[in-house]
Amino acid sequence: MVELVSDSLFRFLAFMIKTRDILVNLGKVVDEIGIKQGTTVLDYGCGLGSFTIPAAKIVGEKGKVYALDIHPLALKRTKKKAQKNKLTNIEFIHSDCDTGLKDESVDVVLFYDMLASLLTPQKQLAEVYRILKPEGILCVKDVHSNDKILSTITEKDFFQLKNKGRKQFIFSKT
Ligand SMILES: C[S@@+](CC[C@H](N)C(=O)[O-])C[C@H]1O[C@@H](n2cnc3c(N)ncnc32)[C@H](O)[C@@H]1O
Question: Is 34 inside any structural domain?
Answer without folding.
Answer: yes
